[in-house]
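User: I'm preparing a small set of examples for a lab meeting where we compare how different chains pack in three dimensions. I only have the primary sequence for this one, and I'd like the structure in C-alpha cell form so I can line it up with the others. Please keep the answer compact; I'll paste it straight into my notes.
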Amino acid sequence: MKKLLVLLALFPGLCSGQTYNYLDYNNEIINAEEYIVAGQFMESIQIYRNLADTYQHVFLRDIKIAAQLSAYTNDTDNLFYFLEKGMKRGWTLKEIMKTATLKKFKDDDRWKRLKANQDQFTEEFENSINLELRTEIRAMLAEDQKRAIRVALTPVKKWRERYTNRKFVPNNRLQVRRINQIIDQVGYPGEKVIGDKSWATVIISHNEHDSIYTELRPKLYKALRHGELSAIDLAIIETWRIVVDTDRREKGFVIWSETITKSDAIKADSLRESIGLRSLELNNKLFRAEKELDMKFYLSPFHGGLVTVKD
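Assistant: Understood. Below is the C-alpha cell output for the 311-residue chain.
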C-alpha cells in the first residue's frame, strides 16, 4: 500500500496555473480503497478530504463513499463536510435519507442547516453545470432507450435485426456523432459538465462497428485526464467496444461478474492500471467489504458479484 499523502503540497493543481491531472486523482482513490479493505477508515477519509479540498471537481461517487465512512467512524465534522459537498453536486437530501447510516445523524443541528439550505445548494449545482446540454443528453438517452427496448422486445430474429439495422443503428450513430461534436465544443457531457455520469456513457456503449469511434476514442482518454469522465465509465465504454468487436473473445477491463482466465485477468489489470482503476483483486475485496460494512462503493453498474480467476 502506498504511503498516505497528507500534505496538500503533494497533490497536483495547488500552484497557480497548474493543470489538474485526474490520473493522479484516480490513483489516490485506489489508495483510499486499499485503506478501506484494510479497515483503516480514518486514513481513507483523509485521502478523500484532501482530494475534495484540492480538486475543483470531485466525483459524487467518491463523496458518497467518504460520507459513509465518516458516518461509520462517527467523524461528524467530515460527515457534514461531505454531505454539503455532495448536495452542491446534486445529491439530494431525499436520497441521503435513504441511507440508514447517514439518516441517523438527522438530529444534529448541522443536519437542520443542510435542510434549510437545500434550495441554495440546488441552485449552486445547477449554476455549475450546463443545464441546456443536460436536457439535450437526457432526451437523447430517452430516444436511445426507447429504441433499445423495441429491439429487446421484438421476438422474431429477422424482424429484430431489420429494426436494429434500419432504426436503432442509424439513430445511435447520429447521437454519437453529436456527442463527438459536443466534446469538441464544451467537453465530455458527463458528471462534471452536465451533472450526470451515465447518460452519454450508455449511448456511446451502444455504438457498434462504427468508424466514428476511432475519432472519439482519444477524446475519451483526454476527458479522463481532465476529470470529465470517470475511470469506471471509460472502462464500461471501452469494454463494450472490445467485447463486441472481438465477438466476446476479449474481456477488456472485465466489468461483469464472471469467471475468467489468468491471461484475461493480467490483460484486464494492465488496462485498469493505465487509467487508474482498481485491480480485479481490490475490486473483489471491496465487493466483500460492501457486504460486511453495509455500505455502497459504486464499483460498477454491471458488477453484480465477484470475478473468479481460474487456472
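A couple of notes for your slides: Residues 1-17 have pLDDT under 50 and may be disordered. The chain is about 65% helix and 0% strand.

User: Perfect, thanks.
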